[in-house]
Design brief:
The protein is α+β, with helices and mostly antiparallel strands. Helices cover about 45% and strands about 20% of the residues.
Length: about 220
Amino acid sequence: MPKHKPIKFESTLETTTTKEVLRIIKENKTAKTTLNATLALIAVGGVLTLGAAMPGAFSIFSNAAKNHKKRQYEEYQTIWQNFYKLKKRDDIKFTKEKDGYLIYRLTKKGKKKIKKLLLNEMKLQKPKKWDGKWRLVIFDIPETQKNTRDALRRKLEQLDFYQCQKSTWIHPFACLEEIEFLKNFFSIKPFVKLFLVEEMTDGKVLYHFKDLLKESI
């Protein structure tokens, strides 16, 4: 395959997953040239050419970078280097040639890495104004999946959920998409439930979130 042909990346991710990947790319501006960031850019689609233009997802570069051609060129070169590394590691694969483009997409291995990246970078979005409701997560995961259960607990703790009981956690902010992702990632969908609570009278819970809620009330 001639190297001079432009490369187009087809996104095969779900819409919610794509949105989350884009958020990570935008917020983590200093890591655009890392291997994981390049994989994320590929995951959401776009075009990579030998010229100086990168349409689609690759236009996420900051305005500051666009105003400094040297920095932009260095980032661009790194993305190309990472592309070949990802290809060699079987994270992406060539599927066909169409309309002058070489079409690539994520492999199963690449998708797995994207999901792990999303897990590591996951955080709950703080609303401008809190809706006054509480999100209650309750799970009953079998003892045969103890390691998975412990991993879920660690993640909920990282997301600043409050542990009311051993398998009961609560947070004031919307987290439906995040909990669905965790259920799918850990393959524990039947064992985890999310409830919406209208009122909270537990003083310990209110105290735990008092500083966080001050900014959203």
